[in-house]
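Continuing the batch. This is chain 6 of the set; chains 1 through 5 are on the previous pages. Same settings as before, nothing changed between runs. Recording input and output for traceability.
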Amino acid sequence: MDTLLTGLRAAGERTRLRLLAILARNELTVSELTQILGQSQPRVSRHLKLLCEARLLERIPEGTWVFYRLTQRGAGAPLARALVELIPGADLEIERDLRRLETVRAIRAEAAATYFRENAAKWDRIRSLYVAESEVERAMLKALGDDTVEDLLDLGTGTGRILQVFATKTNRGLGIDLSREMLAVARANLEGAHLQHCQVRHGDIYNLSVATGSMDVVTIHHVLHFLDDPGAAVAEAARTLRPGGRLFIADFAPHALEFLRTDYSHRRLGFADTEVIGWCDSAGLVNTDVRHLKVAGKRDKEKLTVSLWTSTQHQHAPTHRSLEVA
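Output for chain 6:
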């Protein structure tokens, strides 16, 4: 009852209802919200503080920025959703807010597209060396099977592509990345695809702000080769898995393309199956399955093999299988 009364009191003001309507559609910063509402930053901040204290909004720090979003879980979430449903969509002020929201989203998308264009050439060069990403994605979806999972965590999410690939298979998706530029790209992509059940956050892959045993699936897609300590990242990913939860790792098999280290900041030139399986074993994961996706039509020294390792958070003794995919 106290939660309900506190939430109703906090929402009982026109600007705060406008904030709920806006933030049900997007996560936004204070500066973006001031542009939409046409109010001063101190005033908007006070309204946000009250709504957060009432647990109708979530506050997500990201370096010097803070993002706000309608609460997704907890005692305040049902009330927040109910209030948004009751806000009249035909209200002239709400309609104006949503038009301004589209302008803010367009600015975001253009900034993200500019960054992506500036870096696309180097990503395309690497992609030309291995099987199509669509084939890697199909292999990951096949490994997941037909089940829908509640919570999926994508580490080193980059453009948010893996969140999009698994979007129909999960009820909640969370991507973590250290690059704010890539997070901007991911947010624009998720917004453009209308995937409101998927979010991205700034974070450290070695020290995740994610509760132990809270995820059903964790994905690490072409990330380990950038890391100083891939084994530690695997252990941290395993920590977040529920019993029976699964870890999906996609990365390169061992190769000799030294230019990827010198020109593209790859710390490691691929990983042997025994090495990745060892990390999974040390992290308490079992039943590690290995698949190798090879590209046809190139000489060995000019191509990359993508390996897909899947492992399970379980108590049974581990078994390992290897399957070659042409």
